[in-house]
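BUG-290 | component: ligand-complex export | severity: low

The export step for magnesium ion jobs runs without errors, but we want the raw record kept on the ticket for reference. Input record follows.
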Amino acid sequence: MANGLPDPPCGLLTADAARSLVDSVDAFLFDCDGVIWKGDKLIEGVRETMELLRKMGKKIVFVTNNSRKSRRQYSKKFRSLGLEVTEEDIFTSSFAAAMFLKLNNFPSEKKVYVVGEGGILEELKLAGFECFGGPEDGKKNIILEADFHFEHDKNVGAVVVGLDQHFNYYKMQYARTCITENPGCLFIATNRDPTGHMTSAQEWPGAGTMVAAVSCSVQKEPIVVGKPSSFLMDFLLKSFNLETSRMCMVGDRLDTDILFGQNTGCKTLLVLSGQKLVVLSAPQSLSRVQ
Ligand SMILES: [Mg+2]
């Protein structure tokens, strides 16, 4: 025990630490962007690591905040990179948004407005919800003429905001009018990541930037369903017979991946975006990570 913190709270992943981590874990939860791939490029060593862990009998699950794709589309992306991963082992924030509405008995006669991409629309439709917006509204413009009044669907009962490369003023106003003028309209964010590895060359604005814009215009905080919220973990536990204390969350962000692992009682492993340095941390040891 040092400085009142458990010993060892965190440290570099040495060969000994890696062995003891693998022995103490039945399942590894991997973030995707910046951990498995950057953009469409597989990170070096991922295929070999997955093969080794599977040979050792470890369960491998993917938990991503990127809402641009559905579980089906992610499974396709894994296959295109030479990795065999089934839809059931992929938990996305787009899926989380649909499951959140389902679990909360969102009325079937109400509609969902989407600020985001195809992944959110596909998951909502698969869950049986009527939804619109998304890429189609990316082409819509607003001309702010005198006395112009913006019309919106009064039957929208939820607005879901995720990463949207076609984010614009029209979508912001649509989301704003639904949230402020439709009684009881839910404001759901897939996640609040400030940035993400949308391409292998650099980082780009994340869903958190779109969420912040809508949140600012309505002066309200959203319900967050992706990491670090523990909502996805509840689903994961229902799907697999696993204990969180024997899981390890592997990610490249302290504020989402590592916090999600800590919030849900997992061991955590921070990878610095494909760089060689790796830090191992135990729950509640975030303050010791340098
Ligand atoms: Mg990441």
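Assignee comment: Attached the raw record above. The mean pLDDT is 89.
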